[in-house]
Amino acid sequence: MNKFITGTNHLYDFISLSPDDFERFCEWIVDYSGEYKRVEPYGGTSDGQRDILGFTDSESLHLYQCKRYTKIAFGDFKKELDGITQHIENGGYQRPDRIVFVIACSISARAKDKTKEYANILGLPIPEFWERRILDRKIKQAPEVSKEFFQRNHLSLFGSEPKPCVDTDSQITYSTDGYRFTVINHGDISAIDCKWSLLGFKFEYEGTTPAFSLAPGGSPKSLRLALTGSFMGLDPIKELRLHFEYRDNRGNWYYSERMLNTELVKSKSFYIIKPETGDFIFPKPLFKYALLKIDTIPSGRVQNRWEVNFSYKEKTYILTVNISPRGIRIYGPSQEDHESVIQELSKNKITQMIENGKLKDEVTFKVECFNTDNYEIVKQMRDSIK
To answer: Is 35 left (phi over 0), alpha (psi -120 to 50) or beta?
Structure first.
């Protein structure tokens, strides 16, 4: 059994809930805690940054904000804290004694630290973060909540329809000819035409294994990553992850990903690579589009506009991508680096547009929290795509 995602250790996929159901789920979890004499939901377009309020026996006010995001960054938390401060100053409600952010995804340590620092500057309580792993523990301690939101109408952890689900099945091992690992299908139906790759910040490795199929719960498939143990040098690639693409027997394409943790051994001769427990992207629709070319658009002294041509369903589209000039200056002067970033941001944005059924012709990425680390700057722009 895969200790990372199967059986009782299988993390719930909270993104599979609708936005309304996620807020209602959060209300149930807060109420189920038994901490409050009353719980009041406020979610909506004019909620005043207070999706849920909990009142203790002593009338202490606890404020909960629910975010059904696939990615979240400090800028999102800053906006919420600014809103809370404004509503308190305007007399909308009393200063809360506790602030809890309930989030459907994982949160970086940097985002948590910066949010806590900012709350302290504003004179607000230091926020708590109920991210995906914490929510998973809470729902497993609340069978009534699990039944209501994840077992109604036979809703599975992978969504309402049977899906394949490809993931690593063991620790990745290293030998002189590269890394070896196995994958298995933990879904409900067969995964067909499976392909894989290793992805990271400014890094991509395409697996050379011919496309293969995996039956649900069948024998694992052995794979090899033909890279030497020192392929990262002394600087680990950031956000290293295994990426899988496959289809079902109805022709629907999916992708799933497993985040990887890297550790350089004492001799510095190779890296130990381990799948991260809990950090898994469950099967999501894979939209088959093609990036055709990326052209620069003359825009003055600082190059910060690009024209991205892509095709989808036999039609060609043009997406204009803008990056704030200050962000470009901080990121660095390399045109090659810029184009790799534009390609990554464009892929994420195009996927989101197709998923939402809204193909826009222009998008702008702004850098608000500056950092000399190029990775953090790119991550900030990428995380702005919700």
So the answer is: alpha
